[in-house]
């Protein structure tokens, strides 16, 4: 479960990464506040729409560990690619795909906790995941 906490930590940091770089993206890349808001909205909307799909996937027998690994790997690759581009349209596509990759984390981590813990300890493990997520947001 410690790896799960690390994933939650990095997810929290990633959610703050775009807003914390707004000024640099305006100055260095020439994006407008409207562009930046669109990037954030598309990532969040994609994550909202995709999260139930990944929860259903795990419920139907797909190994949560591999869904989590795939989502984390895709997220890492997309984040690297985002660092390499400066045009708005490719950035928008990658941010949207990044939202889909991030959508694997919450439902799958919750399913893993529910599967590997006793009912009387689940609340604390969910709390640790939430704390790791918020700590990641705080550190970024």
List the helices and strands and how they pair.
Layout (H helix, E strand, L loop, with lengths): L1 H19 L1 H8 L3 H27 L4 H20 L4 H15 L2 H12 L5 H18 L1
Helix pairs in contact: 1-7, 3-5, 3-6, 4-5, 4-6, 6-7
Walk me through what this model shows.
- Helices cover 85% and strands 0% of the residues.
- It is mostly helical and 140 residues long.
- It starts with a helix and ends with a helix.
Concise overview:
With 140 residues, the protein is mainly alpha-helical. It has seven helices and no strands.
List the defining traits of the structure above.
140 residues; mainly alpha; 7 helices; 0% strand; elongated
Largest sheet: none
The rounded distance between the terminal residues' Cα atoms is 22 Å
Query: Percent helix among the residues?
Result: over 70%
List unreliable stretches of 5+ residues. Answer: none
Oligomeric state of this protein: single chain
Order of helices and strands: HHHHHHH
* Alpha-beta classification: mainly alpha
How many whole angstroms does the radius of gyration measure?
16 Å
Determine the number of helices (DSSP H or I, runs of at least 4 residues): 7
Indicate the proportion of strand residues.
under 5%
Number of strands: 0
Which word captures the global form? Answer: elongated
Q: On the 0-100 scale, what is the average pLDDT? A: 93
């Amino acid at each position: 479960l410690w790896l799960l906490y690390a994933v939650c930590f990095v997810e929290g940091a990633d959610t703050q990464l775009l807003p914390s770089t707004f000024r640099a993206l305006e100055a260095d890349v020439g994006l407008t506040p409207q562009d930046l808001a669109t990037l954030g909205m598309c990532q969040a909307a994609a994550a909202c729409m995709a999260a139930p799909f990944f929860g259903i996937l795990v419920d139907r027998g797909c190994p949560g560990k591999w869904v989590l690994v795939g989502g984390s790997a895709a997220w890492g690759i997309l984040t690297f690619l985002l660092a390499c581009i400066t045009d708005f349209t490719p950035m928008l596509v990658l941010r949207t795909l990044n939202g889909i990759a991030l959508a694997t984390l919450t439902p799958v981590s919750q399913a893993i906790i529910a599967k590997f813990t006793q009912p009387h300890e689940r609340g604390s493990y969910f709390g640790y995941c939430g704390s790791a997520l918020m700590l990641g947001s705080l550190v970024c």
